[in-house]
């Protein structure tokens, strides 16, 4: 969510650590929808960089330049910036295509949400915690969970709120989503046995 500080004339985004965006940086933000999209594009680029997400790498782009941005990542960013899902999906894809083209790589725009880019992967097809975290839009927590001993999908059934907090996660929405998705993996694994 972007908030306006009326006393200082600046924009802040609580989900990004201590960033301030002055109105002078985005002078036309009120005047045109394109400027608003540019602001969202900038915020998304900064968020991707802060979380170490490279939209040019697998699974976000394949070697043919097709899209694979997980829907749950789009959903999380939509919630973070309080923007419509379709707008965030479109902007992320624009960023992905722009980055690929800048590197002179093939880039095929998706033209919509990720379910148009790639069919969802069944939970039993994940080979690692890292793959699973990418699929749920939270790849930035891979190192924390691995360091806390969650090095295989079978260990997810033991994941608790206390363990997640001890591992270093702090954002409430992320903790709830992570635990909810872990329960789905555990239930899916139990159903397979």
Automatic annotation (TrEMBL):
Name of a matching Pfam family: SASH1_Homeodomain
SMART domains, sorted: SAM
Signal peptide: none
PROSITE patterns: SAM_DOMAIN
Membrane-crossing residue ranges in chain numbering: none
Domain of life: Eukaryota
Domain named SAM: residues: 124-188
UniProt cross-references to PANTHER family, sorted A to Z: SAM AND SH3 DOMAIN-CONTAINING PROTEIN 1, SAM-DOMAIN, SH3 AND NUCLEAR LOCALIZATION SIGNALS PROTEIN RELATED
Protein name according to UniProt: SAM domain-containing protein
Protein source organism: Hemibagrus guttatus
